[in-house]
Design a protein that fits this description.
The chain has 292 residues and is of the alpha/beta class. 47% of the residues lie in helices and 12% in strands.
């Protein structure tokens, strides 16, 4: 469900970088948000049919602290419902608001980091936040969630395969993920253009495709991201190095003749995830029909 529409930021891979310009030209508010009272009433109504609610709101942590406190207090009175919150952590008082949100049991908080490379984040994605600041917020958030003892899960998403991505960016991303492997979930997404984003005209031919030239160029490294994610998820990452380097061994594994093999596995992961998503949607509809 939506608790608001619009976004304060204009990340180049997102349609909001175009929509914000349209809104500015037509004197339309960038953010249109529902009151927390209305959000709670909608959750109550939906809880009759679902046992999990997902709120997608890039600006949730930009609300006033009192609004957050009101939401947490009211939400905790709703029985048998899990909250998944997809949002952004770039609010200046994010930690104080995250502390309030961590009072919700079985909470899942997802947010986008998009790349462990500061160059890619700032110069390409238009996300201006230092790597050290991200790691600082991550460690504080992780500690906060563990101390709450409310069984909170954290999930961070990354974008792979941008046409302007260099090998140095990919290695920085891999090493950044190694620093995050402390019981968090990772969502890895291959770059896909959205019409009317800032980068579309320059990169219009680069869509997610494991047979594309862009994927073939660094196919092993992209495959390594997914392998790393699975090892971390299943907690069998004890033998992983502290840092990945551009070794001769990696260069051999990245030969283009192997790109079809890596592409096959990445496609298989995507199809598996899509089947899981379709099953979730189907089960939710079946649950709704049985309750209706």
């Amino acid at each position: 469900m939506e608790s608001a529409r619009g976004c304060l930021f204009s990340c180049t891979y997102c349609s909001n970088c175009y929509l914000n310009k349209v809104k500015a030209r037509n004197n339309i508010k960038i953010i249109r948000k529902k009151s927390m009272s209305r959000v709670i009433e909608e959750i109550k109504a939906l809880s009759t049919y679902a046992d999990q609610i997902r709120i997608s709101d890039d600006n949730f942590f930009f609300r006033d602290l009192e609004e957050i406190k009101f939401f947490v207090n009211k939400f905790n009175k709703i029985r048998n419902i899990q909250l998944v919150l997809d949002t952004d952590f770039r609010s200046h008082d994010y930690l104080s608001k995250m502390k309030e949100i961590s009072k919700i049991k079985n909470l899942i908080v997802g947010t986008g980091i998009q790349s462990g490379s500061s160059r890619l984040r700032s110069e390409v994605f238009n996300r201006h936040i230092a790597t050290n600041k991200i790691l600082y917020l991550f460690n504080k958030t992780l500690k906060m969630c563990r101390e709450s003892k409310n069984n909170i899960e954290l999930s961070y998403s990354f974008i792979l395969g941008h046409p302007k991505e260099k090998l140095s960016d990919i290695l920085k991303n891999l090493n950044f993920i190694l620093k995050l492997r402390k019981g968090v979930g990772l969502s890895l997404n291959m770059y896909t253009n959205i019409l009317q984003t800032d980068k579309t005209k320059k990169c219009s031919k680069h869509f997610y495709d494991t047979k594309s030239e862009n994927f073939k160029k660094y196919s092993f490294y992209y495959f390594l991201h997914y392998l790393l994610n699975h090892l971390i998820y299943h907690r069998i990452d004890y033998f992983l190095p502290k840092q990945f380097n551009d070794s001769i061994f990696f260069k051999i594994l990245n030969f283009r003749i192997f790109s079809g093999i890596y592409g096959f596995f990445v496609d298989m992961i995507y199809k598996s995830n899509q089947r899981a998503l379709n099953k979730f949607v189907f089960d939710s509809l079946e649950l709704n029909n049985s309750k209706g």
